[in-house]
Amino acid sequence: MKVHPFINAEEIDRLNTTLAKKISSDYQNILAEKESLLVVITLKGALLFGADLIRKLTVPIHVDFVRLASYGAGIKSSGEVRFLKDIESSPEGNHILVLDEIIDSGRTWDFLRKRLGAANPKSLKICALLSKPSRREIEVTIDYLGREVEDKFLVGYGLDFNEDYRNLKEISYLE
Ligand code: IMP
Ligand code: MG
Q1: 3-class DSSP state for residue 174?
Q2: pTM value?
Q3: Closest ligand 1 atom, CA of 110?
Q4: Average pLDDT of the residues in 114-136
Q5: Catalytic residue status for 104
Q6: Does residue 107 line the site of ligand 1, with CB under 6 A?
Q7: Could you identify the atom of ligand 1 that is nearest to the CA of residue 108?
Q8: 95 CB less than 6 Å from ligand 1?
Q9: How confident is the model at residue 165 (pLDDT cuts 50, 70, 90)?
Q10: Which pLDDT band holds residue 163 (cuts at 50, 70, 90)?
Q11: Domains of the chain, first to last
């Protein structure tokens, strides 16, 4: 399999800047005085996206993490979501923004939406850097989206192939 450049670091940065401006301006109005936005980063994939995006936000935030994985290795997911780590803060009474690097089948966000939503947050939204609409199996609404991508297997900027490539600055596709 070969690695082909797809989205370079400058474009990723531009997408992050646009997302952060919109999120900051929206939550400026939503958050009450002394309230912080609870940003939930989905490990491991959204590690780099999360680290870059939160540094661009201008509203007060707290950070927490969830870890999910789907069974199976390689480029084919089994479609079953394994929930490996929950947030440590209580969702109740918090404005929550989940960060995921890519929405593919929609299963991860569908799962988190139901799980975190059941615990009475003040609000619950999703921000994804990328989306592959052609792969959707569950209809989901993405509140903040960087850009859509075609159905290619992507690596880099947090995205892995059997744990390889996560640390690359740019996003490439494997073929
Ligand atoms: P879902 O299918 O929407 O539940 O997406 C689950 C997760 O699969 C994403 O958050 C990524 O971590 C991973 N994923 C989806 N597409 C790709 C890809 O092209 N490369 C690497 N990981 C991916
Ligand atoms: Mg992910």
Answers
A1: strand
A2: 0.96
A3: 4
A4: 98
A5: yes
A6: yes
A7: 4
A8: no
A9: very high
A10: very high
A11: 3-27+36-71+79-174 (3.40.50.2020)
154 ligand 1 Cβ < 6 A:
yes
Q: Indicate whether residue 108 lines ligand 1 (CB < 6 A).
A: yes
Catalytic pick among 26, 52, 104, 143:
104
Query: If you ran DSSP here, which 8-state letter would residue 22 be given?
Result: H
Question: Helices 9-30 and 47-56 meet at what angle, rounded to 10?
Answer: 60
CA of 34 to the centre of ligand 2 (A): 30
> Atom 8, ligand 1: which residue's CA is nearest?
104
113 lines ligand 1 (CB under 6 A): no
Spatial strand order of the sheet with 81-85 comes to: 81-85, 61-70, 37-43, 95-103, 123-131, 144-148
| Confidence at residue 72, expressed as pLDDT on a 0 to 100 scale | 62
What per-residue confidence (pLDDT) applies to 70?
79
Per-residue pLDDT at 80: 82
Instruction: Give, using CA atoms, the residue closest to atom 21 of ligand 1.
Output: 159
Q: What is the pLDDT of residue 59?
A: 98
Contacts 24+ apart (CB under 8 A), 143-146: 144/19, 144/22, 144/23, 144/97, 145/103, 146/15, 146/16, 146/18, 146/19
Q: Which two tokens stand for residue 32?
A: 């009450």
